[in-house]
Amino acid sequence: MPVITIEFFPGRSDDVKQIIAEKITDLMLNVAKTGSREGVYVIFRETRPDCWAIGGRLESLKTGP
Questions:
Q1: What CA–CA distance (Å, rounded) separates 28 from 26?
Q2: Do 4 and 24 form a contact (C-beta atoms < 8 A)?
Q3: 3-state DSSP helix/strand/coil percent for the chain, to nearest 5?
């Protein structure tokens, strides 16, 4: 039973998350040879940019690309 956690900033629609979950599940079945679709768990965690720092700097304070 693999558990895959995807963490990103909020803003993706349920449709996008559904597609991601389907593709990752397919990948686990085809490449990792997991047992069944129902045995693949995908968890989405949405973390606000003001709660996420990279290189010591909050993402909410970054400007530009």
A1: 5
A2: yes
A3: 40, 25, 35
One DSSP character per residue, 24-37 reads HHHHHHHTS--S-G
Q: What is the dihedral of CA 13, 14, 17, 23, to 10 degrees?
A: -120
> In the Cβ-directed half-sphere of 35, how many Cα atoms lie within 13 Å?
5
State mean pLDDT over 22-51. 96
Of 32, 45, 44, nearest to 1 by C-alpha is 32
Q: Which residue has the higher pLDDT, 63 or 60?
A: 60
